[in-house]
Amino acid sequence: MDLDVFVSAHRAEWDRLEVLLGRRRRLTGAEADELVALYQRTATHLSLIRSSAPDPQLTGRLSQLVARARSAVTGTRRASWRDVTRFLTHGFPAAVYRSRHWWVPTALLSTALAVLLGWWIGTHPEVQSSIAAPDELRELTRPGGQYETYYSSHPAASFAAHVWTNNAQAAAMCLVLGAFLCLPVIWILFQNMLNVGVGLGLMSSAGRLDTFLGLILPHGLLELTAVFVAAGTGLRLGWTVIDPGPRTRRAALAEEGRAALGMAIGLALVLFVSGAIEGFVTPSGLPTWARIGIGVAAELLFLAYVYVLGGRAVRAGETGDVEEGERSASVPTAA
What we know:
Elements lengths: L2 H20 L6 H24 L3 H19 L6 H18 L1 H23 L2 H7 L2 H8 L4 H4 L6 H22 L5 H23 L3 H34 L6 H32 L7 H28 L20
């Protein structure tokens, strides 16, 4: 493409678009239609220049024009309670539901790994001795030992806040680092399952498996589910880098990345609930069956929320992405 000829042919359109964008008064109906048409044509011109004859100065000018025009055409809006409601009832559950083919297998495989590690540690004394000295192991697993007192070692409110912060960071890391070809997510997930497996193996070897399950299940069901959702979504994001499907890699990453960002906010709320359970229910004086019952109820409510509300939203066309008007403009690729 001859850039000079192209610029000469379309400069008048760009100048006219700039004039319309600079108008202080309200545009007439004809001017508004002209603005939309010029915006679409300028976006096409920008795409052609980027792909055929990239020129930094001209690309910068047209990019600025397209951004200003898009803002003028779509307008600006402020977040409202309607957005919060839509996110909680449609966007977030739909995003979790759509990624179920990633996080459900992740949950099953991770749980199997934790159980296998627990069995291996619990049935091999030489492995236990490599973890800690015998006296330290007895201190960890005895009645009133460190495994039991851990959940009541700090005031409930501060402990819940600390747990929530740590878990939210782990979930966010899974979501963000998934774009790095999945490997960081697998490592984070393995570390979590190793911690569970060590506790499972040591407490079972001491004949106190029931105590361990009574301590971890009330909050752990919902907490680990949130981690599995984050890990599965991160793995999906990483796979998008490898195989974007029919979309361009850039468009696929943008769509999945926006959904992942929304899921980070939603999962922070889920982990807040599990942190509250861990801070106030797990160390409480309630019977074991009651504490586990609360954890099971929280887990079932979350799954119903995802599969009922999320499934309904997905069937209605929801993807978990932001509304169309809030997305970056899709630039045409042909004149």
